[in-house]
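Hi everyone,

Forwarding the result from last night's run.
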Amino acid sequence: MIIGIPKEIKNNENRVSLTPAGAYTLLKAGHEVLVEKGAGTGSGFSDEEYLEVGAKVLNKDEIFQKAELIVKVKEYLESEYHYLRKDQMVFTYLHIAANQNFAKALIDSKTTAIAYETVSDNKGGLPLLTPMSQVAGRMAVQVGAWILQKANGGSGILLGGVPGVRPARVIVLGGGVVGFEAARMANGLGADVEVFEIDQRRMAQIDEITNGQIHTVNNNEYNLKTAIKEADLVIGAILIPGAKAPKVVSAEMVKTMKKGSAIVDVAIDQGGCIETSDHTTDHDHPTFEKYGVNHYAVANMPGAVPRTSTIALSNATLPYILKLANKGLRALKEDKGFMLGLNTYDGHYTCLGVAKAFNEEYTDPDTLF
């Protein structure tokens, strides 16, 4: 199979979807790898490194024209929609439940689109979302600490405090991968951390893993309204695979927060879980202020640390790319968890969460091929 690796064009998106090591594995398996000129530069991988393992370095138009499988990091931007076509598979982070224009472009072009974020493993985990969730969760605390600095518009609070001065109060919404990694980082810096979660078993796990150092709270409206008034940093980390994130923090709650406090909505790529995170930002202009609270809503957070992120992502995706290259759509038929990654096929919505987000008809992919 011919596999195309385009250069990402989203603002400050320096990741690349395949490392030279990954390209070598695919080439050794008998496939052809086409890499756009400069695609790996932002992650520290030169064109020469791809050429040395046997990949071809071409321009963007050639990549999209020749490849049977396009492997990306982020969703297509509008300037790339014209590349979508029926006889080509796309494998990337799609996040189309929060992007109706992109969803329509996929449906209209009848593209076979497989989303990293909805692929599941045999334990119900999200193996291709996990590495970037780990990065984003840890980054959320770094970002939050930076926003709280007075020079950046914050209240001037140090996350960990010092002897005689209380630490910052950090509220994490959701105890999944993002939330747990954020909570661990904040706790490690000495902050007072609470994870708001609805799953009793997950709360028990967090308590056991951290030996009670990270507090867990049942995520209901009363508890959240009470706690958020005293929060210095709120990290939104709620995910429903494939679907839009629920708005668990209302604008009225945000209005009660202290001036100069901070919100980092990691769920923004799925629409955000905080009502006042009403638009995405980028790495050039990452924050905006609303009701005296500084909001960070960058939809590609791991793009800020591309070397780490690219290697972690490629490690996770490569086995799936190899399956697709070897078997095509049969790879999905043979793996139910992989099939859950299929979001659109031949003009149909084949992911239940996405179909519900747009009130469109869901089609069971097993009935289509």
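Residues 350 and 363 are 5 Å apart (CA to CA).

Cheers,
N.
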